[in-house]
Amino acid sequence: MTLSPKPSELLTCTIKKVKATGRPTENGFLVLKGSEAVLTERPSVKKYPYPSIFRSQLISDGVLLQQSNKHVFSKDYEFSSPSAAASVIHGGHANGLREWKDIKGVSLKELEQKDMANKAMDSDKE
Predict the structure, then answer these.
(1) Residue 115 placed within a domain
(2) How far does the chain reach from its first CA to its final CA, in angstroms?
(3) b or e along 46-69 (b: 16 or more beta carbons within 10 Å of the residue's beta carbon)?
(4) Lowest CB count within 10 Å: 13, 58, 87, 95, which one?
(5) What's residue 3's pLDDT?
């Protein structure tokens, strides 16, 4: 049985009135079922097509479903990184360390830096 993370452990990624929810995992980043992604891709995907190719695959696999003016995740989906997840949600390249934030608006990058600083302080005490 998998335990659900506490709401305080979840991160959100928002853009243009869509919101996705997820959390870091050992293998990357898990976006939760019901999360949203923009419908229209950014013009930059013509030059850098990775997010567009990935989105197309998720649509064809039934992971991303169109609902009115956005896409919605039909199930939890684990990405290789926070940036890969944010890129799909944003419809173009995105820095997941900056785009994923906790309920206080603190970015994943800042959370990771605080965590590393706390671990360093803990190891100094030993």
Answers:
(1) yes
(2) 35
(3) eeeeebbebbeebeeeebbeeeee
(4) 95
(5) 43
